[in-house]
Amino acid sequence: MKRFAICVACALLCAFGTGCSNYRLAGTAAELPFHSVYVRPVKNFSYAPQAAALLTNSISQSLMQSPDLTLANPDDAQAELQVEIVDYRRTPIATQSYDTALAASYQISATAKCTLKKSNGEVIFKDRKVTARTIIYLNSVGNGLIGDEYQNMPVLMRELGGKIKDAVLGIW
Fold first, then answer.
1. Are 43 and 75 in contact (CB under 8 A)?
2. pTM, two decimal places
3. What is the pLDDT of residues 17-66, one digit of tens each?
4. Residue 38 lies in domain
C-alpha cells in the first residue's frame, strides 16, 4: 500500500510539473516570430475624420517603443501589418441640465480590422478587430461637437494604436 501511494504521488508530481512547464502569465513577453515589421498606411472606411494618418503614426510610435521590434521598409521587413478603420460611432452619454434633448458628452469609438503577415506570406492573424473608446465633453467655448471631436481624435487614435500594438506583440 505504501509503495502504491509513492507511485501515485510521483505520477501526480510529474503530471503537475509538465503541465505547468509552458504556462505563461499574462503580460509576460513571448518570443516573436519576427523582429522587424512594416506598417502599411491605414485605410479609413469609416466616417472618422482624418483618422488614417493619425492611426498610422500612432501604431508606428507604439511599435517603436518595443525593444524586440524595429520598423522597416517593405522590402526589408520580416512582417507586414495592414490596418483598416471599419467603424466609427458617436453615442451621447449625458445631456445638458437645461435641455435633455441636447447632449453634454459623447462616447466616440473606433474599430479597426488588422491583418499581420510574415514576409513569406504566412498569416499570423487575419481581420482581428480592435476597438478603442474615449469621451468627448462639449465645452462652453463654442467649438461645438465638430471642434471637440477633431480635438479628441488624436487621443482616440493613440488609444487604438496602443491596442493594435498589444495585438501585434501579444502573439502566443
1. no
2. 0.77
3. 665 555 555 555 567 889 999 999 999 999 888 899 999 999 999 999 98
4. 32-169
